[in-house]
Design goal:
Elements (H helix, E strand, L loop, with lengths): L6 H22 L9 H13 L4 H8 L3 H13 L3 E5 L7 E5 L1 H23 L3 H20 L1
Antiparallel strand pairs: 1-2
Length: 146
């Protein structure tokens, strides 16, 4: 990686950062029908895709304190979206897992967001869709290197 970053690269990074934030904000509108706020949906997503996880691992993944994550986890458990079970390796460790209802809720929300984005992409000219496909592959590489 070059030690000096060009002004063009900085501008492109700024534009990409802004576009990503705006994209996520707009797609988040689809989440209102889930009945969960953004922190609960985000925590549930980690549990569904990375679980079972400990509360500490979940707090680190979500970049919040364990007490904050405890409140989120308690709310998810009260809604029967996650379960707590003792680790088979160490009974002092509690693992958080998604219930079938939690997984369904999260996957349905993801489907709504993807469908909303797909509608916008489908409206683009074919050449733009091809460019976006290539840019997405490059973006995946960039993300994997961060």
């Amino acid at each position: 990686m070059p030690s000096k970053i060009s002004k063009n690269s900085e501008n492109l990074a700024g534009d990409l950062h802004s576009a990503a934030i705006h994209l996520l904000r707009k797609l988040r509108r689809e989440d209102s029908s889930s009945g969960l706020n953004a922190p609960r949906l985000s925590a549930l997503s980690v549990i569904v895709f990375a679980g079972p996880v400990t509360l500490g691992d979940l707090a680190r993944a979500e970049q919040v304190t364990p007490p904050t994550m405890s409140r989120i986890v308690n709310a998810l458990a009260a809604q029967a979206l996650i379960t707590r079970t003792a680790s088979v390796d160490d009974a002092r460790i509690t693992l958080l897992s998604a219930t079938p209802a939690g997984k369904r809720l999260l996957l349905a929300g993801r489907e709504r967001r993807v469908r909303a984005l797909a509608r916008q992409i489908a409206a683009l000219p074919a050449s733009d869709r091809t460019t976006l496909e290539a840019a997405t592959a490059i973006l995946k590489q960039v993300v994997n290197e961060i």
